[in-house]
Amino acid sequence: MADHTPAKAIYATVTCVTQRNPDGALRQKLIKECHVGDRLQLVRDPGHPIDPHAVRVCRTSGEQIGCLRKETTAEVGPRIDAGMRFETEIVRLSRSSRLPKRPRGVKVLIRWFPAEDQDG
User: Fold this and answer.
1) DSSP letter for each residue of 6-32
2) How many CB atoms lie within 10 A of CB 91?
3) Which of 29, 57, 99, 117 is the most exposed place for a label (fewest CB within 10 A)?
């Protein structure tokens, strides 16, 4: 029987939120459609040129809204590769007051659970 207790939970800031997706979609427009409590998907990006543990943050529709920071991917990426199950949800949506266009920011709660054949 699977354990439903998370092995760990962390808060993380989503980065790269002002970029365009390969299909031309503006991430800021996608984030504008998001709400606190929305579930998100973490998708590995093993071909990333800078971060070998890179992780994309996507809506359940598959649309990318950003990435996890390198400090977070070092912990999360290998666990995704190991088959751990993740639950990710938006806990805060914000706007920066430092920039004229005030991009929207996203903070998430990431919980991971042991794979069926693993502990922690």
Assistant:
1) -SEEEEEEEE-TTSBPTTS-BHHHHHH
2) 14
3) 117
Structure tokens at 96: 């920066």
pLDDT tens for the chain, 120 residues: list them: 445 676 789 999 999 999 999 999 999 999 999 999 999 999 999 888 999 999 999 999 999 999 999 999 999 999 999 999 999 999 999 976 666 677 899 999 999 987 665 444
How far apart CA 58 and CA 84 sit, in angstroms, is 17
Q: Is 80 helix (H, G, I), strand (E, B) or coil?
A: helix
- Looking at residue 59, its amino acid is R
- Are the CB atoms for 39 and 87 separated by under 8 Å? yes
